Amino acid sequence: MIEALSADAAVDAAPRGAGYLSLAIGNKGVVKVVGILADGTRVSRSVPLLTDGTSAAVTLLAPLYAKKGSLAGVLSLDMTSGIITAAADRALLWHNPGRRGIDGFTELLAPQGGYFDLSAVIAAAPLFMSAELEATSWYAGGEVYNWVGGVEQVPLNANGARLLAVKGAKPKKVSDRESGTVWYEYDEVNPIVATFSLAARSGVFKGKFTLWCDYEDAKGKLIHKGVKASYGGVMVPATGLMSAGQAMGLGHCLVPEANPEYKALRLKRSRLLRIER
Predict the structure, then answer these.
(1) Do 184 and 224 contact (CB within 8 A), yes or no?
(2) DSSP per residue, 128-139
(3) What mean pLDDT is reported for the chain?
(4) What is the CA radius of gyration of the chain?
(5) Angstrom distance (rounded) from CA 99 to CA 265
(6) pLDDT tens digits, one per residue of 52-70
(7) Residue 189 backbone class (left: φ over 0; alpha: ψ -120 to 50; beta: rest)
(8) Which among 251, 249, 271, 252 is positioned nearest to 128, based on CA atoms?
(9) I want to staple 249 with a disulfide (CB 3.0 to 4.6 A). Which of 22, 48, 239, 275 is the partner?
(10) Would you state the pLDDT for residue 54?
């Protein structure tokens, strides 16, 4: 992302996660572009490949949001190295008008990528998945509550040619009869009970997890709330464009907005998800 502009600063609906596009070049010079943007919107277009044999370009124009929005721009391909870029003056323009205007946004995207190598990912394991969940919370009774733990360093281990999340367990309710105290104990390794699946050919990954919130109601009763969220992304190709500190995988998680002020907008907050060593 180069720049993000929300139609309303108070709502701040612009996604903060990362999406992905995959390009498949057919025998007749037609490129199939498919992917998912950082707000969960699916993209699927067939476009011509413009090439001189060593370099190529793909002009993309994809109507979105009932043809009221769009994704448009030019992708540059190095046919020798397999690296894909978009120059700053030809970046992808992503426009979502929103359902009610105030939840719309416009972003300039700077794609980077290349061929995916599963063996390099497996060799780098174990990997760890985390998500930046700032500004996402649970609202109840006029109060704001933080998640228990969030998404932090969930292990992903290699199993043959697969990458799998360590199996997690749901929180366990514990009661102390003498004091009458009730609390929940969480799995130490995967408290969000995250699932994870990776497409071996494309490097696209996806899964689900549950965010937990524990709080007391007006009568002092402990409330245990679970909010399910989905996520998706792509393993980052090892190209010369990537810096040494670049994540092994980038994506987004979609957390339902619990603020009653925005209930009518049915927002899902898009936050950056990273997979690192």
Answers:
(1) yes
(2) EEEE--TT--EE
(3) 88
(4) 21
(5) 7
(6) 877 888 899 999 999 999 9
(7) alpha
(8) 249
(9) 275
(10) 76
**Residue in 56, 54, 96 with CA at minimum distance from that of residue 74:** 56
Encoded amino acid at 246, one letter: Q
